[in-house]
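Predict structure. Chain length: 107.
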Amino acid sequence: MLRIHDVIVEVVREVAPTAKRIARHDGDLARQLRKALSSAALNVAEGSDQRGGRRESHYSIALGSARESWSALVIAAAWDYIDAPPPELKARFDHVIGTLYRLVHRR
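Prediction complete.
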């Protein structure tokens, strides 16, 4: 399995308390955040044992889910449900998104 999977799991652990805070204001947004972040990890895991187009498809879905997760945090901050995500968390998301982008757009 790709090492980025472990990074995503760490991001899930870090974001979990924030998702609970978001849920107090907007249950749908919190649910979407949890589903998207879980999807990123699960699609990396599933894609790692695939070949060709199936692998790329799973990694592409994981990339979209990672971006969606970050966007959910930014939106929650815009609604003032949470403080703006810290730069360290942004850096971890950038690492995940960058890695998945390179996997999807190899050539």
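Summary: The longest helix spans residues 52-78.
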